[in-house]
Amino acid sequence: MTDQPLISWEWVAENLDLIAERLVEHLALTGIALAVGTAISFGLAFVIYRRRWLSQPIIQLTGILYTIPSLALFAFLVPITGLSLLSAEIGLVSYTLIILIRNILAGLDGVPPDVREAADGMGYGPWGRLWAVELPLALPVIVAGLRVATVTTIGLVTVTALIGQGGLGQLIVTGLLRPGIFETMIYVGGILSLVLAVVADSTLLVIQRALTPWARARA
Predict the structure, then answer these.
(1) In this structure, is residue 4 part of a structural domain?
(2) How many domains does the chain have?
(3) How far apart are CA 53 and CA 58, in angstroms?
(4) Could you tell me if residue 81 is inside a domain?
(5) N or C: lower Cβ tally within 10 Å for the chain?
């Protein structure tokens, strides 16, 4: 009796179009969630930065969303928004908020007071100082949060296969439901999801270092 290989390369060769399609779907789901989550997080973080009394309710609410198991959250959303892209994105965006908001605030709070005073002395107003001075200095911490949110989202996208989305998660779910050759789909979906997460994290790290050469020199 010969051992069966974990991956049927014949199946992979015959289904490259399907694999590529699922990969593109995975990238699209991830990109939309991160873009929307980042925009919302910056907005909420700026509000908190100017109105500190709002910190506790916003952080608590986004923290609660993050602690809800993904299956439970998607199950809650389906009766409201259906088995749709909207359901998937609402869930995915929800899990990015606490990560990004905390890192944005941590980055801004880490700007030395004397730097702020120097910016004020140069004539910057509150918003001008924020955009020209504080945000650039906070960028390493912000990108670190974006890296965590990106890897988290790539993993969670696979779960949305249970509500008809999922990208590479569709391969995993199909493989779980069908025995034999379809086990290859599990390995292909899982391995590509892992590779995608590593590549995305490495890319963001390179971008971070390119945008913040002073942080690298100081380290």
Answers:
(1) no
(2) 1
(3) 10
(4) yes
(5) N
2 assigned to some structural domain: no
Q: Are 141 and 106 in contact (CB under 8 A)?
A: yes
| Phi, psi angle pair for 68, to nearest 5° | -70, 125
Residues 144 and 163: their CA atoms lie apart, in Å, by 30
The pLDDT tens digits of the residues spanning 163-184 come to 988 899 999 998 888 766 678 8
Q: Convert the pLDDT of each residue in 74-115 to its tens digit.
A: 999 999 999 899 999 999 999 999 999 999 999 999 988 888
pTM, rounded to two decimals? 0.90
Residue type, 88: A
Tell me the C-alpha distance between 192 and 201, whole Å. 14
How confident is the model over 188-211, as pLDDT tens digits? Answer: 999 999 999 999 999 999 998 888
What token pair was written down for 110? 């880490």
Residue 5 backbone zone (phi > 0: left; psi -120 to 50: alpha; other: beta): beta
Tokens of 189: 């979906």
For residues 160 and 84, give the distance between their C-alpha atoms in angstroms, rounded to a whole number: 10
Containing structural domain, residue 172: 9-218
Q: How far is CA 117 from CA 37, 67, 78, 151, in A?
A: 31, 39, 50, 37
Sign of CA dihedral 200, 206, 211, 217: positive
Q: Is residue 153 part of a domain?
A: yes
pLDDT at 1: 40
